[in-house]
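Input chain follows. Return structure tokens only.
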Amino acid sequence: MDGSTANKATVTSSPFGPASTTLLHSDASIRTLSFFAQLYLETSAGSGGVTTGNPDLNPETSTTSEIGRRIDHDGFSFDGTLFYSKARDYITTVAMATSREFTYQNVNSAKS
């Protein structure tokens, strides 16, 4: 399942006067993903660590919501955004037997 919706609205008259513009935006999405490298490849980083793929991973599914507002007034801009994300079968990297060996593993859920 992969879907996304985004909404934006621009308000040219605002409580800050005629030289102000207010932009409101929102976004909601549901995404399912897992990457080939996380499933099957062995990769190495500059520090000498090795990460081995895990073919037993479940795809990660996340639901994200976002709402924000931007105000432009007299050459100044203010941006504010709130977001919420919830993931099921979150894919994370975990250490194996040594400090330089890693693999990918599913975590039941994660929120941010």
